[in-house]
TrEMBL record:
Any one of the GO CC terms: cytoplasm
Subunit structure of this chain's protein: Monomer.
Keyword Nucleus: no
InterPro entries named among the record's database cross-references: aa-tRNA-synth_I_cd-bd (IPR045462), aa-tRNA-synth_I_codon-bd_sub2 (IPR020751), aa_tRNA-synth_I_cd-bd_sf (IPR008925), Glu-tRNA-ligase_bac/mito (IPR004527), Glu/Gln-tRNA-synth (IPR000924), Glu/Gln-tRNA-synth_Ib_cat-dom (IPR020058), GluQ/Sye (IPR049940), GluRS_core (IPR033910)
An MF annotation (GO) of this entry: ATP binding
Motif ('KMSKS' region): 259-263
Top EC category: ligase
Protein name stated in the entry: Glutamate--tRNA ligase
Domain called Aminoacyl-tRNA synthetase class I anticodon-binding: residue spans: 361-489
């Protein structure tokens, strides 16, 4: 029987989750769900210079918001970071003894060595190599220090790191599910530092040890890690461990085919959350950046993604992140959301914008539903709703074109219509939806004005624009009092 699939998302807690990382998490999740496997969240915090307070919480909250669930690793419970599972700890800074043990084993077996070169020397060789146009690489100065002597120097308190001892001029080959077989010669790879002078392992050492000890079967990560993979493969072999499968995902690029970076605006999951994107839409769109389904389908529920996702259809070239497309996907989800959810979200936005009060939202559920139903097709994001709904709650200045329209040859029509509307409305207590539907017909009958000459001026007078939602909806949403007030100046 095949081994149970175990995958992991292993971010460094840098303070925010890049949407490229979210996509990595998503693909791991989809694959784990599809295969009935385990999905683990591990925190890779061995680079202490990059440590950010609260970053773990932020990361977990972002995954939670996105609806990407894992079954093992690091969680938040009652506001505290907790770890669950049989393979812990899942935070690398709590596993230092484990790494040390394997580093020592590699040293004893001659597959790693102590290196005492100081920063000045390393800088100098880097510069020298650069001048000669060679790749920056350690020159192996400490490779052949006899182990006894090195140990004595360590015992004497000399600062050191431990480096991988790669064999000379040897091909390292591995298979990547997306890219096929990849071979790299050790002459092109550095004798990677495995243990730093602060006693922390580097990412390379920690990732291999943890992936092995945690029983990870598939490494699904961004292609920026592809150049590191031969070192990892060598480590698996050096430690006598079975290699996992590798799946390197194409980088998420912007429209200029450059890496999507923070300088260009929104790149973190939080940015998108704050802008009002729906997690389902963000996931759906991200799934399509670098993966394509068998047909041209574009809108997926998470369950559908799980069913259809496969690494075979992950592309080799970078996926373009197109914000307009994301907006479109978001709009599709928005339109199809459950009306109760929509109402809650819409109320929240309108309250935030100061257009309605909490009490109003609570006491006018049906009204709120009509409002959303009326405006949802004109927005891609719920955060755009206040702008579209503003004319309902506030008097707005007339746009130049609307002003011209009403003051020019339509002035007389406007006046006749304003008076007719007022007369007609005086006969009812309130504008119900049904009443609103027949209203314009009555005005037409009353005034003899029809078509564009009827609709455009009325629209302009009561909604401050010649464009907008259906007339009956506008009438219902505004209500009698507001309409009276707005018509006053045209009578
Ligand atoms: N800690 C690495 C990162 O921040 C994980 C890379 C990997 O998945 O191996 O992306």
């Amino acid at each position: 029987m095949d081994k149970k699939v175990r995958v992991r998302f292993a971010p460094s807690p840098t303070g925010f989750v890049h949407i490229g990382s979210l996509r990595t998490a998503l693909y791991n999740y989809l694959f784990a769900e599809k295969m009935g496997g385990d999905f683990i969240l591990r925190i890779e915090d061995t680079d202490r210079t990059r440590y950010v307070e609260g970053a773990i919480e932020n990361l977990i909250n972002s995954l939670h918001w996105a609806g990407i669930h894992y079954s093992e690793g690091v969680f938040i419970e009652d506001g505290k970071v907790v770890q669950k599972g049989d393979y812990g700890p899942y935070i690398q800074s709590e596993r230092l003894d484990i790494y040390r043990k394997y580093v020592d084993q590699l040293i004893e077996e001659g597959k790693a060595y102590y290196c005492f070169c100081d920063k000045e020397r390393l800088d100098r060789i880097r510069e020298e190599r650069q001048i000669k146009g060679l790749i920056p690489k350690y020159d192996g100065f400490c490779r052949n220090i006899p182990l006894d002597e090195a140990k004595k120097r360590v015992a004497n308190g000399e600062p050191y790191v431990v480096r991988l001892k790669l064999p000379k001029d040897t091909d390292i080959t591995f298979h990547d599910v997306v890219r096929g077989d990849i071979t790299i010669n050790t002459e092109d790879i550095d004798d990677q530092v495995l243990l730093k002078s602060d006693g922390f392992p580097t990412y390379h050492m920690a990732v291999v040890v943890d992936d092995h000890l945690m029983g990870i079967t598939h490494i699904v990560r961004g292609e920026e890690w592809l150049p590191s993979t031969p070192k990892h493969v060598f480590l698996y072999e050096a430690l006598g461990w079975e290699k996992p499968e590798y799946v390197h995902l194409p980088t998420v690029l912007n429209k200029d085919r450059k890496k999507l970076s923070k300088r260009q605006g929104d790149v973190s999951v939080e940015d998108f959350k704050d802008k009002g994107y729906l997690p389902e839409a963000l996931n759906n769109y991200l799934a399509l950046v670098g993966w394509s389904p068998e047909d041209n389908k574009e809108i997926f529920t998470m369950d559908e993604l799980i069913k259809e996702f496969s690494f075979e259809r992950v592309s080799k070239t970078g996926g373009i992140f197109d914000k307009d497309k994301l907006d479109w996907v978001n709009a599709q989800f928005l339109r199809n959301q459950d009306i109760n959810v929509l109402r809650e979200e819409a109320s929240e936005e309108l309250i935030k914008a100061g257009l309605i009060t909490e009490d109003f939202a609570k006491n006018n559920k049906e009204y709120m539903e009509v409002l959303i139903d009326t405006l949802k097709d004109s927005i891609s994001l719920m955060t755009e709703l206040p702008e579209k709904a503003k004319f309902i709650f506030e008097e707005l200045p007339l746009a130049d074109e609307t002003k011209e329209f009403l003051e020019g040859e339509n002035a007389e029509n406007a006046k006749v219509l304003a008076n007719a509307i007022e007369e007609e409305l005086s006969s009812v207590d309130e504008i119900t939806l049904d009443y609103a539907k027949t209203f314009m017909k009555s005005i037409q009958k009353k005034t003899g004005i029809k078509g564009k000459n009827l609709y455009m001026p009325v629209r302009a007078m009561i909604s401050f624009s010649v464009h907008g939602p259906e007339m009956d909806r506008i009438l219902y949403l505004l209500g009698k009092e507001k309409i009276f007030k707005r018509l006053d100046k045209f009578k």
